[in-house]
Amino acid sequence: MKRQKDEEGGQEWLNTYADMITLVLTFFVLLYSISNVNISKLEEIASAMQRQLGIEAQTDIEDVPQDLKYPVIGENNEESTQVPTGSQNTQASAREMALMARDIQTYFDSENLDAIVSNSENAVFIRFKNDLLFDPDSASLRADSKSMLDAVGIMLKEKQDNILAVYINGHTAQAANSLINDRLLSSERADNVAIYLEDQVGFDPKKLICRGYGKYYPIADNATREGREQNRRVDMIILGNGYRPPDTIDAMETMDPLFPVTMPGDKAMIQEGTGSD
């Protein structure tokens, strides 16, 4: 029985031999993989391990590869292309709106047109006196106003990608004993301006927003003829892509009734609430 046990245990050396062969094979595979490794990547791995172990060596700026110190920015280098931040987009939009306001004002001055242009950050305001666009009690565009709308519309279309929305606000000052509904008249006038910009100029209709306010938001005294002439108007408010509406509760509670923004200089008269004639 003792001899039989010795013979059975004599084969155990094969297990050790098999383990050694496996380790040798693994060693040669490792040597082969190291012989084909990218040296620069290996150095990066070694550097990363040094940082993790807290033994990172100091590197002089002269030792940094040239393409890392001065990365090349080109059309095909997507990784190095910088994406503008929100602030940069807002500033770029404000510049485009300022340039548009300047161009429109230059056109009005050259044609001696009685229209007002102003701008604030990311918004352009245009006020057309009513007789520039419409005859009294009429919502049909005057024939001589169409060339002006063509010129303004072309400038808007050129900046179309920079424009968030164009609000067209119609206002009236209904005369005494008039049979025309001032709300309908102001709405139709705003609509007809938008329709012209859409059909004749080709401006994006989704960005045109029309509203009729009737006689309820005057900018002058409605009791006088001169005041009523000022109140009869069409306002165009052009918002740049960088425009942001108020996002706080306090801002929403005090929001302008002519949202999103009011023409400069109008708030005082609107707060006074001068009535119709």
UniProtKB/TrEMBL annotation:
Claim: Transmembrane helix is one of the keywords in the record: yes
A Pfam family assignment: OmpA
Keyword annotations from UniProtKB, A to Z: Cell membrane, Cell projection, Cilium, Flagellum, Membrane, Transmembrane, Transmembrane helix
Source organism, top-level taxon: Bacteria
Every OmpA-like domain range: 121-242
Subcellular location: Cell membrane
TM region positions: 20-39
Keyword ATP-binding applies: no
Membrane topology of this protein: Single-pass membrane protein
Cross-referenced Gene3D superfamilies: OmpA-like domain
Primary residence: membrane
Sequence similarity: Belongs to the MotB family.
UniProt-recorded name of the protein: Flagellar motor protein MotB
